Each structure stands twice: as structure tokens, then as C-alpha cells.
Amino acid sequence: MKSIITKYTKNCMLCGTPTTTEHHFLFGSGTRPLADEDGVKGPVCSKCHNMGKIPERIHDNSAAEALSKMVGQLAWEKHQVAAGMTEDEAREAFRRRYGMSYL
Ligand SMILES: [Zn+2]
Ligand SMILES: [Zn+2]
User: Fold this and answer.
1) Residue 84 Cα, ligand 2 centroid: separation in angstroms?
2) Which range marks the domain in which residue 87 is found?
């Protein structure tokens, strides 16, 4: 898994059990392929991802979904800053690439 979120991909980032799938921190129409290409994803188990009770999973939990997108944007921008952009440039670059800003 190419991930700019974490290099520790063997365990679910939420509960620590073995990884069974990946979560794209940025998702929605047209967004997921970009997140896939950019590595804005991380290891999760199916229960924490979309199979557990709604308050205990990411998908269909509105607060968790909103926070996921914020984390995804922050990680993406941090990656650009590490490559030499200013924070303002990274924010604008995110807006151009993903068509919106979650922050
Ligand atoms: Zn989990
Ligand atoms: Zn997901």
C-alpha cells in the first residue's frame, strides 16, 4: 500500500487488529482515484472501516467522515510542504487538485 499517512500498514490504524482493507481519507465522486494516486490512504480492519456499528466506524458516521477528510488534506499538504511548498501554496494546490478545501 502506497501511503503518505503511515508506514505501519500491518495493523488497523484505529484498533490495532490485523489490516484487512484500506481507507481513502479523501473520498466521494471523482476524489477517491486522486487519493489512491496520491497515497492518501491507510490500513484499517473492515469493522472500523464500514462493517461495525455506525458510531464505531468511519463510513456513514458524519463526524468521522468529516475528520477523515481533514486528516487527508493535512497529510497531503504536509507532503507538499516537505517537498518545498509553503503552507499557503500547499493549501491552494490542494484546492486545485481536489476541487475543494476541508479546512
Ligand atoms: Zn479496526
Ligand atoms: Zn474508506
Assistant:
1) 29
2) 21-98
pLDDT digits (tens, 9 = 90+) for 65-101: 999 999 999 999 999 999 999 999 999 999 999 999 9
Is 33 inside any structural domain? Answer: yes
Cα–ligand 1 centroid distance for 57 (angstroms): 8
Tell me how many degrees the CA angle 45-64-66 measures, rounded to the nearest 5.
Answer: 130
Ligand nearest to the CA of 61: 2
Beta carbons of 49 and 21 less than 8 angstroms apart:
yes
Q: Is 12 contained in some domain?
A: no
d(CA 26, CA 6): 15
32 inside domain = yes
Closest ligand to residue 48's CA: 1
pTM flag (> 0.85): yes
Answer whether residue 92 is part of any domain. yes
Distance CA 51, CA 95 (A): 31
